[in-house]
Amino acid sequence: MVVLNNIYKGPYNVLATPTFLDTQEGSFDDLITDLQSAWDNFNKTGAFSTEVLNQAYKMYENGGSFDYLALFKAGITVVGSVFPEIAPAVPFITMIANFIFPHLFGGTSDNKQTIINIIDDEVNRLLNERLEQDKKDELQGYLNGMGNNIKDFGQKIVDTLFNSNKKPLIPNSHSLHDVYQSYSGFIGNVNTVIDQFRLKSYEKMSLPYYCLAVTLVLNVYRDFIRYGKKWIYTITDETDYTTYENYINTAIKNMNQLTSKATKYVLNTFKTYLPTYNYNSKSQLNTYNSYIRSMTISCLDYVAIWPTLNPIDYPIPTQLDKTRIIFQDIVGPTGKDIHFDLFDIYGKKLPNNDVFRYSYGGFQLSSARFLTSSYHPSDIKHCIFSGFTAENINYKSEVTQQNEYDLQNGSLYADSSWSNTITSPMYLFNMASQNTMYLDYSALYNSDKYFTIAGCYPLNDNSTGKGYHSNVTSTANHKIQAIYAMHNNPDVEQDGRKRGILASLVPFEVTPTNIIGQTDQNENQKIQAFPIEKINHLDYNKIKVERSNGANSISMETGDVYSIYFTNVLHQNYQIRVRAATSSNNIQIKGSIYNEDLNGTYVASFQPSLSNTSILNTENPELNNLIEGINGDIYKLFSSSEETLNLTLSPGNYRLEFSLQTGDTPVILDRVEFIPIPSQIKPQNLNIQDNKSYEIWRDNNNNYASYLSGTVVPIFNPTTDNPIVTFEYFDGEESLGTIPKKYSNVGFDDIPKWLGKKFNRVTVTVSNFTFPPGSGITLANLIIQDIKNKYSQFTTPEDLEKITNQVNQLFTSSSQTELTPTVTDYGIDQMVLKVDALSDDVFGMEKKTLRKLVNQAKQLSKARNVLVGGNFEKGHEWVLGRKATMVANHDLFKGDHLLLPPPTLYPSYAYQKIDESKLQPNTRYTVSGFVAQSEHLEVVVSRYGKEVHDMLDVPYEEALPISSDESPNCCKPAACQCSSCDGSQPDSHFFSYSIDVGSLQSDVNLGIEFGLRIAKPNGFAKISNLEIKEDRPLTEKEIKKVQRKEQKWKKAFDQEQAEVAATLQPTLDQINALYQNEDWNGSLHPHVTYQHLSAVVLPTLPKQRHWFMEDREGEHYSVTQQFQQALDRAFQQIEEQNLIHNGSFANGLTDWTVTGDAQLTIFDEDPVLELAHWDASVSQTIEIMDFEEDTEYKLRVRGKGKGTVTVQHGEEELETMTFNTTSFTTQEQTFYFEGDTVDVHVQSENNTFLVDSVELIEVVEEE
After folding, report:
1. pTM
2. Which residues contact 1237 (CB under 8 A, 6 or more apart)?
């Protein structure tokens, strides 16, 4: 028996982490994260796990809106190692081939759903066209031929990088030769291979397969170039080195040529088959939009990706915002092929009704409400969807979009009502309408056609002349970007009151905000590419519709100024470049950067020097990665006039302003790109030929580094002495220590990592080596890592005394067993920085002793903290948003800190609940923490109801040098003064609040909830040292105050629980009554019918989402789910026992043979069969499996009106059930059958016969 406590535990007494609400974008993003993890492991072991691909494939096979090909495209671009110097150059093609050829990597060779079929299904869904099977077989044959060669090439690279025990290797000249042989064997006839996918007379239908083939080949080029660039230094023979260098350069040229050639072919084919669009009728525009939608998803998105596969221009993964919009089919306003007017989000009519005038424009639909209007001027009942109001947001502003009939033409309706606000993301809209002599209905709905958002749902469904359905399906991995009102043009059609909707779509990941500096779980970054069309206040006349770039381009003329806003979340060096097209050499663009957080303060500028891309395309197109767009514009990447512009940006919000300085012709701007440049220096490879000392790096500008990384490659005659390579680290001229490494055979090793003090100079010396001919030692891939400002070193007794006194002051006594109450966790971290700055040489023993004491203080701080993991260390119990990450290497923190990024796609938060058992009664607790920087950081602490609710905006400020006095290293004022950060006084960086706990509420585990989240799209925060600690017992006055608060909470809590219980109990009783022994996992009672399930109304419970974490389940979510699952199991049982297929008409008239005017209508929100006249009927023939003559069967029918249900079995046996009622009644008859074939016939005997369900079941005794 299921009782209320089994399914509803109450709002407080469950500490399990709330799970994410299941969303399309969330599931997709989780797969991307898993794919990145698989790739990272591949880099370490040489073994690529296909688990995530298998999971994705199962999601595709199970149906729904999952886009397998979208994951494939994401894998091509955004997955991978960040800086190529650190990675071994494992082949991307191995991961990609696992998508396309699973049977080559352990999958099933006879897999029915090949990639060819997946593409064919997608094209058919969008265009209602399919390739003939023999053509698909032909393409599959070509693809399989490519697959075997691709697998061999990828495996050849892996074999040179890892041994059989998955240990890394350094390739040698023989390895590089083997890889080239495998590569050249595939590439030798690549043009012929690719052209096979251009099926003659099937150019349009085969275009997606051609794009797939080109993508595979470009990735082979990419892998060979990356591998060759990474390991060519291991070739010692000068001639061989030059030859291999030529191989790489030829691959770069061929890759650029293929990209250019394939792009041109795709665009030409796209234009050739583009439907005519010369009149704003619904049929023309839907045909036109459907074609563009299909070609964009299956072809043009690949074209946009291709240039970013070039490893010279894009050495690390690239996040390209594809702001190209595609359109859902028009829904409504009626089923007619109407003529209509187009309006933008500002309510302005588009010039010439030109759909090309629509563009992304930096806006995203945020929320909308929809209007229902009803009136009865005569016998006709009108109930229609008549308008909407929508909120559209961009980076800086919000536009309210209104399109309601009442506002435009005056009120004609007796009754109008607004829907509840629907928030993004929205995925699709659909409409149904009906216009007869008795009624005029139109209904707007999204996923569930029986859940109407606005208007009234038609009584007659799917009937020509009576009902109309738009039947739009969602586009996988896309969301609605904007909605536009559609209504009849009064000059062509009457009745302009009804509204329809044209919805534009963009990929899930596209948002109005532009974020740079974001890292993944391994602190890797990507190149961020933002289309210029994301600028504010976009002029329609400047838009250049471009199909090759994943976004529209913008025309810029002299005097134009375009601003694009972005948020940087990491103190980072960047190279900034633009992608543009121009037909002139006299062009100068200026990019100026302003800090919006400092009232638009000027930061820096850069000036890319543009050259005539048309001439470059004529002279050496293969050297420049030039792409010709659909309008003939030639696009190229342009950096600053300096060879590399390394611009350092602190975290914050910025405006990048473009202006055309000189030029007599327009410039066509595509996008701006931000390339992260790590805080490192890359010395040249060093070839050592003697035993003298070589200086690798020296800095004279007070910069110090943590360690040197790279590879030692000795090449020598085995008969010679074994060399010793010694690295020596210095502070100026003072040696900090050495690390020697002895080599006993031909091989390689990484440079041993230096674990000592920071250094500003490093040298290498080789000893015990005679350097015979042909021998040598090479240092390759050298990187000076983690470069920062001068590291403090305390060497005086005064410094030691100050720091020793401060360490002792952490404790209440010399026993060091209790912390001083005023000491904060952040203060302890500050103290360890001071101790670490003591000189090892001068105060080695004292430093060791002090460090033990500070460690003890940190452990005591953790013990008193009722939070688990206040520093976000391993084992913390914070519940984090999807994109929240731990970040290291910040001067204001000792260890990692939490980065809450902008909530562009998902809420950004950290949340933890303190168990009631950790708290003391009648006690005050202090809640504190340190914020290095924040914008729009919301802080909430709640026990009885959000006792603390604050918003913190903490400016970016740099760390001060570590000092031996009591002052912390926070902070060096930037543009404003900052108070001290020791917590002893109010401070913008250090927050502190109090919360009082009265009597303990152990029965409901009330606890303390603590949350931090980002409140606005351009906000972010860097946080650590969070504490909730016991402060002191409450005074009598404070106890009385908290008791009053507790009583109010308790009264409201008890009332809410009583209301919830009262709401849930009737439904619980109804569901219990369905099952034998009230066991929801057991069998239904034999008498249970579809109507019993329909009679169960699920309660409306408000807390489906967590009160703080909006993308996670709320306290009522699981209850609703358990109810729904119980009903689903019940429905499944009825379906399984009902011998009649679709007896509930839940799937329309599927499985029924229809004669006359038979259709579905809606009665009490359920689909019901309507036989409109005496000549209408439906019938079905079934065959009973394992038929036995002694088995008794029951016919159960629920109907209304006049009609008959007959069951024919055997040769002449006929059973009849007669209806003649004015209300719905249920009739049952039992009988035995003469044979295993049964015909069921439902016939109207008058004007209308309504049938709710038809069941034919085997009679079973109740257990």
Report:
1. 0.82
2. 1181, 1182, 1183, 1184, 1209
